[in-house]
């Protein structure tokens, strides 16, 4: 079951990631697509928080990467999550390219961890201006409802 994460808080998005990772009867491609959509949604939130309209363009076949490029303009510390975005795209490709691979369950778990990392980073960047590269420090901020 896919959920429209655009209307969820960052804490609710984290809960959704947990639900995706533990749904064993779900098609792997659906899990990968939803995790990628979560990445796009949180990047859209960042772009909107900066007063911009999120791009519909793609970079290297992924809107996620184009949104990252847009979000990094004029904000050097935002480049800290570039590799996180690329890793989420990589796991998407692994899962959808070989959904029956014996490691698919593990790959979905890893994609969930990467998506969570992106949520924590961007949630922290939105909550506190200048958070910078210390994305994992975002967790205490988000636990208070930000």
Indicate the topology.
Elements: H1 10-21, H2 28-49, H3 63-72, H4 82-97, H5 104-127, H6 138-143
Helix pairs in contact: 1-2, 1-5, 2-3, 2-4, 2-5, 3-4, 4-5
Written description of the protein model:
The chain is mostly helical and 146 residues long. It has one domain. The protein is built from six helices and no strands.
Structural class, by secondary structure, is mainly alpha
Give the fraction of residues assigned to helices: 55-70%
Strand element count: 0
- Unreliably modeled segments: 130-146
SSE order, one letter for each helix or strand: HHHHHH
Mean pLDDT: 87
The shape is globular
Q: Kindly provide the radius of gyration, computed on alpha-carbon positions and rounded to a whole number of angstroms.
A: 15 Å
Number of domains: 1
User: Sheet bearing the most strands, described?
Assistant: none
**In percent, how much strand structure appears in the residues?**
under 5%
Span between termini? 26 Å
Quaternary: single chain
Count of separate DSSP helical elements: 6
Can you give me a brief rundown of this structure?
It is built from 6 helices and no strands. It is mainly α.
Provide tags for this entry.
146 residues; 62% helix; disordered C terminus
